[in-house]
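Q: Predict the bound structure with adenosine-5'-diphosphate.
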Amino acid sequence: MSLDSLVQRVEAQLLPHVHIESVDPNDPVVVRKVPFPWRALGMGNYAAVFWHPEFPDYVIKVYAPGRPGLTEEAEVYRRLGTHPAFSECFYRGSNCLILKRLEGITLYDCLSLGIRIPKQVIKDIDQALDYAQSRGLNGHDVHGRNVMMYEGRGLVVDVSDFLNQEPCSAWDDLKWAYYRFYLPILAPMRLKVPHTVLNMVRKTYRFFRRLLPYRKCDRKAP
Ligand SMILES: Nc1ncnc2c1ncn2[C@@H]1O[C@H](COP(=O)(O)OP(=O)(O)O)[C@@H](O)[C@H]1O
Ligand SMILES: [Mg+2]
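A: Predicted complex:
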């Protein structure tokens, strides 16, 4: 199946019928309606990501009405080119991008499912962020829902804020928690951390980060 026929399906079948809403800008968007046979693969605070079974290697990232970042994300992918730890952008519509599908599971979901995260994943993401920096980009807003693990390797799934040159401590904070808390305490217990607890941690972290302006990591409005 060609990219052209996917674009046609997206424009004719997905976009006119999908219904996405950003209820609270600090929480993931809500998908109210997905036309068959499209499937929602994931939700971020700006967009939802969909997949069609006849086009298994692609995903469609649809931005919720009024949420910024699409143009910037397309530009980041242009600068990144091809790299094994990142997706690629093949098409840019008015409110959607067609991206390479990354297989795997977000580190956030690893915690909730009790799946062990090896050190290699963290090292791969560090290297990917170094590569992004070599392309004039900044690893901004790299948190547990924006990074994935596949067959023991690390991937960066969301690069939409990488044009933002302001410092962001999200990845350093996550690494700190990984080495100081996850590896010595959580991983040996093989605990599944419930979504309610992960959400509490996310909100508490967000609250404290706001007290330290230089550590702010929110996406820049255009
Ligand atoms: N290329 C991709 N391949 C597979 N899943 C993806 C891809 N991009 C995003 N996702 C899934 O969709 C979720 C939301 O996408 P993300 O780019 O983080 O949106 P936002 O910009 O709104 O934060 C991710 O956490 C991930 O689960
Ligand atoms: Mg995201």
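A: The pocket of adenosine-5'-diphosphate (ligand 1) is lined by residues 41-47, 49, 59, 61, 87, 99-102, 106, 145-146, 157-158, 160 (CB under 6 Å).
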